[in-house]
Design a protein that fits this description.
The longest helix has 34 residues, at 2-35. By secondary structure, the chain is α+β, with helices and mostly antiparallel strands. The protein is built from 1 helix and 4 strands, in the order αββββ.
C-alpha cells in the first residue's frame, strides 16, 4: 500500500510541476507577444478597445467606433498606416 501511495504522490507532483512550467512558458510568450505590439489610438471599434485614456475606464468601454482616446494593441510599426474614416491611427492620445 505504501508503494502505491508513493507512486501516486510522485505522479501528482510531476503533473503539478509540469503544469507550473507550462504556465510560466505561456506567460513568457504573452510578454514577448506584447513587446511586439504598440498602442494605437483612434482605431478601435465600439466596445473593442484594449484599455483607456481620457474619458474611458478600461477595456471594452469605447462608446463609438474610432474613438480618439481609445486604443487597440496592434503590431509594432503598423499603427500610423491604419486608415479609418476619421483619419490615420495615432501613437499618442489626443491632447486634453
Amino acid at each position: 500500500m505504501k508503494l502505491s501511495n508513493t507512486v501516486l504522490a510522485a505522479l501528482a507532483l510531476s503533473a503539478l510541476s509540469t503544469g507550473i512550467v507550462m504556465a510560466g512558458d505561456k506567460a513568457a510568450d504573452g510578454k514577448m507577444e506584447k513587446a511586439n505590439m504598440e498602442k494605437c489610438y483612434g482605431v478601435a471599434m465600439a466596445g473593442k478597445n484594449n484599455c483607456a485614456g481620457g474619458s474611458l475606464s478600461c477595456a471594452g468601454t469605447a462608446k463609438k467606433d474610432y474613438q480618439a482616446d481609445a486604443f487597440k494593441l496592434v503590431p509594432k510599426g503598423t499603427c500610423t498606416t491604419i486608415k479609418t474614416p476619421t483619419g490615420m491611427g495615432s501613437l499618442t492620445p489626443p491632447a486634453k
